[in-house]
Structure of Glutathione-binding protein GsiB:
Amino acid sequence: MKKLARVFAMLLCVCMLATACGGGNTPSQSGGGSAGTSPVKDTLVVAVQADMADKDPINGSTTNDTVKVKAQVYETLIERTVPEQEYKSLLAEKWEFNEDATELTITLREGIKTHNGETLTAEDCLFSLNCLRESANKSVTDHMDLEKSHVVDDRTFVIVMDEVYMPVIANLSYPTCVMFSKKGYEENNGDWATMDIGTGPYTWGDWSIGSSIKMAAFGDYYVEGQPAIKNLEFKVISEDGNRYIEVETGGADLCYNLSGVDIEAAGANPNVEVFREYTMDNCYLSFNQRNEPFKDVRVRQAIAYALDIEGAWKVCMDGVGQPAKGLLPDNITDSIAKTDSPYHVDYPVYKYNLEKAKELLAEAGYPNGFSCRYHVGHMALRQAYGEFFANALKQIGINVEIVALDAATNSQALKVEHNFDIYTWGIAATNGDIDFANRFFYTDSVNNIFGYSNPDMDAMIVAAAKEIDPAKRSELNAAIQQKALDECIIVPIYQQEDIYCYSTSLQGLRNGAYQSPLLKYCYFA
């Protein structure tokens, strides 16, 4: 499977070199075609499994369905490329640390326009970072001393660090770390539902909630020739098979989240291409450790032993992805030191063992089990896993009520209200640096949904983030993951895989970080 993913990635790279470098070679999309030919399409229709939760790029939802949409409207200073896992210029033309890595000087590209007609400045960028610091996703600004950070000139500013923190470059590539117009934000009183103040290749159009999201190409985008396609439409189609049918019948040009049952049909269709690539995400099951009985590690371990991870994958995944091999996917490497040292620990800890599960549950004082709620969210796949695991847990006396909510309501219940017992979510080094995943286990992290707190773990995470020696950092990160497994903070379930299908008439498709295709490179042949 990994070989196949690499082949697709190489083919896409060849396509990018031929069609998208610098924007100047992007085919023209103008005109209505010559006599006897059909006009070139000017709208790219994308079939998606769920609507976005909101328009707020900094304080809103970070579910993948939502970020895939917002990534076309908002941009970060730095981008992480895939599959290369390199950090490259986006809004920032260049960046440089001082000698002791306590200051980071960033210079913007010249002439970047925001959607409200302003020129993006260094002041806008520091304002954006300060807004992010006050948001639910504030962890991206960890160790930035924004009071001491300052503007040098219109295009240059300095981020002052409160201590050495090597993942700061990676954090600046995270999808909530977007830059926008200070003037536009203040004029609209920070109402993301009504303002359009980003810098991305597309601007907001009509949003018919639950049905479709429309966008238009931004005429003042700073890369000449991009985007090539004038309009985008994200069409919400929750039923997996129907998304593929939309592409097959011409109702859509691109389908996200192609299901396993449709892969064979898509592969046999000469008018459809299939793209597959393992992500840097593992899906996991975890527990609300603020409350009994999940404060007890023996209860958590009992549930882990009761889950047949391999069997669940065979039943639920239709050949997509793979069962989790460790706490994190094994395609994560040291992006800072540029080594191949793996930052994952193999996962032999909790092999499927019902007798061991019953024994641990009895030791914890629950010989007859208990009842709990399992939040599975809106995705059909996670709901399928939820049903499989609910049936499995019955065998050790745990009665599970499945709770399936839309993305926004589910996120509110988990991350704000903490109103759940067990749940399924994703863990990843989303920004390319392992520290992002480690922070899930840090006491004060916004990603610490499960309520785990351990001073020793906190100290290990801080030490790893400061360490620049690759061998020492690798050892620290391995120890963090081993501790997380031993204490059964989460139960890794499966590694995710991006699978898209698209019409052969659509060219230039390029996957970006956070599994967000960069549609500005696409054009119709």
